[in-house]
Amino acid sequence: MTRTKWKAASRAALALAGAGALAAGMALFATAPAAAGTTLGASAAEKGRYFGTAVAGFKLSDSAYTTILNREFNMVTAENEMKMNATEPQQGQFSYGAADQIVNHARSRGMSVRGHTLAWHSQQPGWMESMSGSALRSAMLNHVTQVATHFRGQVVAWDVVNEAFADGSSGGRRDSNLQRTGNDWIEAAFRAARAADPGAKLCYNDYNTDNWTHAKTQGVYNMVRDFKSRGVPIDCVGFQSHFNNDSPYVSNYRTTLSSFAALGVDVQITELDIQGASAATYRSVVEDCLAVPRCNGITVWGIRDSDSWRASQTPLLFNSNGSKKPAYDAVLAALNNGTTPTDPPTDPPTDPPTDPPTTPPPGQGGCTATVSVNQWTGGFVATVKVTAGSSAINGWTVGIALPSGATVTNAWNANRSGSTGSTNWTNVAYNGQVGAGQFTEWGFQANGTAGTLTPTCSAS
Ligand code: XIL
């Protein structure tokens, strides 16, 4: 996601924001120096960032709640409704009603959506909690694929994996049923997410990773560095930033954000709350984000103190009666004082080849297909890249011979014939047209062992 897109989302929000729109819109187009924004979202947008909040679906009928939501924020995270137990309560039966309601509320008002979360040791459905081994790995990847496919094009960034590192001094992975499927479970999840929604930014998200000197922070940092060096598709790191007396804000937070950003990922503050809501601490967090060009947004974990998962800590920007707290004023002032990052702060992920400019003639230049395989004991995910040759193509057919014992269980972004032996794959409606030299990606999951796959490609 580029800065421009965060800004565009915010402008759309402003256009629909009713009475406040005129004043805020004037701020956007005023001559330099830009007038101060009057809401968190508008002020963040002026700095090329977003300002978001967690939303609980059942509160959307509370007009005091939605009044603040619609006025102040231009990014939304579902507080619980996209978690594994919510979206796949029974294995293979997906339930999107509550999440869709939040997504529709947000997007119809020009707000963007962060997806939270595809794979996590916590808030798993009961059937998954009792699974292990290759069956669990397979179920997890299917979950990632199905959910990311459902929200394809509607979610700007996904917390693909949440909280996979251990607290304390080890700097290693947290023990969990997912971790016990093999250390490569995280990268497998990222690859499946990329295949299912190539346009979304893919984030790793965790808590207690704010202090640069902590082993957990270093553990996550080393994983991200490793992923970047090996081409695992990761675009961003989320810092939950639940600050309290046990894990307080520290002044090296900015170092943490900038060090991760230097690895070539965006950084986002994803679940901010601060015990006691010190205005000075909130101001510091905002200033730290604004000081790092690739820190592209801040999300607070709820609107009013009464909405907080830690309500007794009164950690948010609005009182339980909906009035602005001193921390709100500090955040708004810090946003309005902040700097705008210089371009280009990001190297965006490969955008899906959505709309080629014209309908090309049948591709005389043909196409090529390559496969990358993520194998684990008993199964694999194949990501297939179809690249058009010297001319644009209108459609493609890929043939893949699977070794005996390999059986396709599901696929995305392609039509399939055959699930064993010789399989044939053709484009779906939205990815047949590929410009000269451009590519599109699709994939499938299978039981068994992939071995070396050598696909053929023919263009139409
Ligand atoms: C919390 C929600 O706020 C609660 O409503 C729910 O009961 C438990 O989960 N880290 C995360 C979030 O990534 O999903 C958690 O949200 C808070 C900690």
Automatic annotation (TrEMBL):
Residues 34-334 form the GH10 domain. Residues 1-23 form the signal peptide. PROSITE patterns: CBM2, GH10_1, GH10_2, TAT. Its EC number is 3.2.1.8. Residues 360-460 form the CBM2 domain. Residues 342-363 have a biased composition (Pro residues). It catalyses: Endohydrolysis of (1->4)-beta-D-xylosidic linkages in xylans. One of its GO terms (molecular function) is endo-1,4-beta-xylanase activity. Belongs to the glycosyl hydrolase 10 (cellulase F) family. This is Beta-xylanase. It comes from Micromonospora jinlongensis.
